[in-house]
């Protein structure tokens, strides 16, 4: 019962934090990257920051996998859902940081907040799937799982492809920022964020859990605020920026 209350508290905390982020103005929800304020003096190199802050969401699920007291991981649906979570964070903590080309150093405070979130969410998702979640043996043939898995895979591919476009905007020796083109950037400013949001809503659908939904909701709240900030920044800094581009969701928002 104590474990269940802790997981429920983390769910409520994520939802409350998401609602708080929706209420903040977009500049206060954009404290790193090109939107970081110059007064932030304590900074962490971009590669180090991304690797360290995302690592808890990889390490904690791996610990659950190695633990002998993870009864639900004997069931295939639980293992596959946890693997979906792990695949993202393998890419995010072990691959993505080392592909960054001279990224902007991250202010220390948002880096610490990210570590705290990844620790709590890594624990929430891995503990739920390894100890609490009960699925039928044929859950992987359920339309909710199949549709969710498809959305998860599509979102992850959009996210990775969009990050690739952003990394290659500058050729060696180039300085300054450029307008992203290609892929979903033809339709929205924050194609990479759109991909990650689709990915986690797919995971939430596939897991059919309040824990997954809370994570997807928080992701949307956080990334939509950053997407608004980037959209405003591009419009202010590039007169030729395509006015028909939406902020985050093609043809809608």
List the main descriptive attributes of the protein structure presented here.
253 residues, mainly alpha, two-stranded antiparallel ribbon, 2 strands, 62% helix, globular
List the helices and strands in order. HEHHHEHHHH
Helical fraction equals: 55-70%
* Sheet having the most strands: 2 strands, antiparallel
Biggest β-sheet: strands ordered side by side in the sheet:
1-2
Quick one: overall form?
globular
- Segments where pLDDT lies below 50 for 5+ residues? none
Total E-strand runs? 2
Number of domains: 1
Strand content: under 5%
Helix- and strand-based class?
mainly alpha
Distance from first to last alpha carbon: 42 Å
Mean pLDDT: 90
From the structure provided, what is the oligomeric state, counting identical versus distinct chains?
single chain
Radius of gyration: 19 Å
Question: DSSP helix count?
Answer: 8
Task: Provide a brief overview of the structure.
It comes from Saimiri boliviensis boliviensis. With 253 residues, the chain is mainly α.
């Amino acid at each position: 019962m104590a474990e269940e209350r802790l997981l429920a508290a983390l769910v409520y905390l994520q939802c409350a934090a998401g609602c708080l982020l929706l209420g903040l103005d977009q500049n206060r929800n954009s404290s790193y990257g090109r939107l970081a304020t110059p007064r932030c003096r304590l900074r962490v190199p971009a590669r180090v920051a991304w690797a360290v802050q995302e690592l808890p969401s990889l390490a904690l699920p791996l610990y659950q996998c190695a633990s002998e007291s993870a009864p639900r991981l004997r069931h295939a649906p639980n293992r596959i859902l946890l693997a979906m979570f792990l695949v993202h964070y393998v890419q995010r903590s072990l691959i993505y940081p080392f592909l960054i080309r001279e990224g902007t150093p991250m202010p220390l405070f948002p880096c610490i907040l990210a570590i705290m979130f990844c620790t709590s969410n890594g624990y929430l998702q891995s503990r739920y799937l390894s100890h609490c979640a009960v699925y039928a043996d044929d859950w992987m043939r359920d339309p909710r799982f199949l549709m969710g898995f498809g959305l998860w895979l599509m979102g992850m591919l959009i996210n990775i492809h969009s990050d690739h476009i952003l990394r290659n905007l500058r050729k060696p020796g180039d300085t300054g920022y450029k307008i992203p083109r290609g892929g979903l950037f033809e339709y929205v400013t924050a194609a990479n964020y759109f991909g990650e949001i689709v990915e986690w809503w797919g995971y939430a659908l596939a897991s059919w859990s309040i824990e997954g939904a809370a994570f997807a909701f928080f992701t949307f709240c956080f990334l939509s605020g950053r997407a608004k900030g980037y959209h405003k920044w591009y419009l202010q800094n590039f007169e030729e920026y395509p006015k028909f581009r939406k902020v985050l969701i093609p043809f809608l928002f």
